[in-house]
Design brief:
The complex is a heterodimer. In chain A, about 40% of the residues lie in helices and about 25% in strands. In chain A, strand 2 and strand 3 form a beta hairpin. Chain A is of the alpha+beta class. A five-stranded antiparallel sheet of chain A has the order 1-2-3-4-5, with helices on both faces. A three-stranded antiparallel sheet of chain A has the order 6-7-8, covered by helices on one side. Chain B is of the alpha+beta class. Chain B is elongated and about 80 Å long. The mean pLDDT of chain B is about 95. The chains are: A alpha+beta, B alpha+beta. At the A-B interface, strand 8 and helix 4 of A face helix 5 of B.
């Protein structure tokens, strides 16, 4: 009976540990991601650091050695846009914000990239990177 | 009426006039207002009045028409040319030559450095840019993203009906759109032109690249072709249809012109002839005629700028290679020959009888022969060589015209009303022929075929 209780407590502690790891907002900064960026691998790391009061999940991944991040728009960025658009996600490529807008069907287009609408900002970012690669 | 031609068929002077008018509009600030209009339509999303919906085609038809009028305020002779990318799909196409649109971009910024729109000319600085964009120079990356539409793909898109479908805000990503013709033409065909050119053409402010107008002129031409091929297919949706962005339904005033006293609607631009222009491909055949200006016109080249004698008619014949030749009585009363090229041709220096018209036929070797009533009243034959020809010595009824046709053996036959009022036939041999002894009504002309 005592052994079973100890096992249960140990299991709970281990479970809590993994929950903390998974929910950590800093998981994106793990060395694994940095290694992938350096090596140019298309390694994908999803970190669901949902911020309080925002419905937008933060997401980052590396594509062709470039860092794509989709995150809730900051208050500063929201102020620059029309009021009421605060819930829109913000796209960054290599930490540089990209102006995006949703058309009437909900697809995303971007500054300098108006004619390749994509259903997701990540896919849009990949097409932008593809173009920049090809243009080099 | 203005004719919009394929850009490869522009005479050098026409291409130069187009470029000069575009640069003049840039210099006086009008051009940038058009760029801003297009960019602002995108920035109005999700209520873009110009893209991603049924009014994509009407909005751009109105946009092009206004731009063409602005060009004509600079030079009344200018019309928008179109770029048929199913044929001229190479970075080596004459479209990109330094005397027209200029070439590809180069370097990390893909800056265009050749032609009239290169930054270094000092005449083409981009001032209207997308949010966050900073480059003031024109950029291109020809062929960097995808491929241009092919003829089979365009033919497939032209076969799609109806015009559009609910939910009225999609672009197709596959030929044979289930969302209708507009969605396929916009998504599968039009977008690829912007992406293939790349650089500035991919932006909200894409009219910064003057090739925008040639690309959209071709899109408008294809819409006109679809309208011709599907006369029973109406523009949809009607106004009042739920879920349609303002400006996209049939009788909606189209922003940003909706504040004008008589704002354009999709309905008001459905008939491009009523808007004062047509395309050189609108007819499958080529027609030569004396326009109301008395100049010689063709339906594929437009105004040849060559004056015709009042009351006379041209005659046209096609060669095996598809080129054609036109014979007509010029306003000098001389017999002249033209191949559709404006302000060019051959004056044979042979005088024609007032009020009569020549008849031309192409021989198997590609040369041609013209029959006409000379100012002596005799039937003459000419092969386009100035100051030469054959006087058949056969008198024609005043005011009548001969008709010529080539026979299978390569010879030809001419029918005409002789001065006896009888129908006669001649093969070009002087002082010979056949009098059919069939009387004709005075002043009429026969028509012959093999």
């Amino acid at each position: 009976m005592t052994c079973r209780a100890v096992s249960l407590v140990a299991g709970l502690i281990l479970g809590l540990f993994w929950v903390c790891i998974i929910a950590s907002p800093y998981r994106a900064e793990t060395p694994l991601v940095r290694l992938a960026e350096v090596s140019g691998l298309n390694t994908r790391t999803v970190h669901e650091s949902i911020r309080e009061g925002s419905p937008v999940a933060e997401h980052s991944e590396t594509y062709k050695g470039r860092r794509i991040m989709v995150r809730p728009r900051t208050a500063e960025a929201t102020t620059e846009r029309a009021a009421g658009e605060g819930a829109e996600p913000e796209l960054l490529i290599d930490n540089q914000p990209v102006f995006t807008i949703q058309n009437s069907s909900g697809a995303y287009i971007a500054s300098g990239f108006a004619f390749a609408p994509e259903a997701s900002l990540v896919d849009l970012a990949k097409r932008i990177i593809d173009y920049q690669d090809a243009a080099q | 009426m203005r004719i919009r031609k394929n850009q490869v068929r522009l005479a050098p002077a026409e291409g130069a006039a187009f470029v000069a008018a575009v640069i003049a509009l840039k210099a006086n600030g009008v051009y940038d207002r058009f760029v801003a209009r297009h960019r602002d339509a995108f920035l109005a999303n999700p209520n873009d009045p110009a893209h991603n919906g049924p009014a994509f085609l009407p909005w751009h038809r109105e946009f092009l028409r206004r731009f063409e009028r602005a060009l004509q305020s600079i030079d009344p002779s200018v019309s928008l040319p179109y770029w048929d990318w199913t044929v001229h799909n190479s970075t080596a196409s004459s479209l990109w030559h330094a005397n027209f649109m200029g070439g590809d971009g180069n370097g990390p910024g893909r800056r265009v450095t050749t032609g009239p729109f290169a930054f270094a000319t000092g005449r083409w600085t981009l001032r209207i840019l997308d949010p966050g964009e900073r480059n003031g120079f024109l950029m291109r990356s020809l062929g960097g993203m995808g491929s241009l539409p092919t003829r089979p793909e365009v033919d497939s898109a032209l076969g799609v009906v109806p015009y559009d479908r609910a939910p009225w805000h999609f672009q197709s990503s596959g030929v044979g759109s289930r969302y209708g013709f507009r969605a396929g033409l916009e998504g599968d065909i039009h977008n690829r032109g912007h992406m293939w050119v790349g650089g500035s053409m991919m932006s909200f402010s894409s009219p910064n690249d003057p090739v925008f107008w040639l690309h959209h002129c071709n899109i408008d031409r294809l819409w006109a072709k679809w309208q011709y091929e599907h006369p029973s297919e109406a523009y949809v949706p009607p106004s009042g249809t739920p879920g349609v962005v303002a400006g996209h339904a049939l009788d909606d005033p189209m922003p940003p012109w909706d504040g004008e006293p008589s704002p354009p609607t999709p309905r008001s631009v459905l008939d491009h002839y009523a808007l004062g222009y047509w395309y050189d491909t609108d007819l499958s055949s080529v027609v030569a005629f004396q326009a109301s200006t008395t100049n010689l016109w063709t339906t594929d080249h437009g105004d040849t700028m060559l004056g015709m004698m009042a009351g006379t008619s041209p005659s046209i014949a096609v060669r095996r290679n598809g080129s054609y030749v036109i014979a007509f009585q010029a306003n000098t009363s001389n017999l002249c020959v033209n191949d559709g090229t404006p302000s060019s041709g051959t004056d044979t220096m042979l005088g024609m009888m007032a009020g009569t018209s020549p008849s031309i036929a192409v021989l198997p070797n590609g040369s041609y022969v013209i029959a006409f009533q000379a100012n002596t009243g005799n039937l003459w034959v000419n092969d386009g060589t100035p100051s030469s020809g054959t006087d058949t010595m056969l008198g024609m009824m005043a005011g009548t015209s001969p008709s010529i046709a080539v026979l299978p053996n390569g010879s030809y036959v001419i029918a005409f009303q002789a001065n006896t009022s009888n129908l006669c036939v001649n093969d070009g041999t002087p002082s010979s022929g056949t009098d059919t002894r069939l009387g004709m009504v005075a002043g009429t002309s026969p028509s012959v075929t093999r």
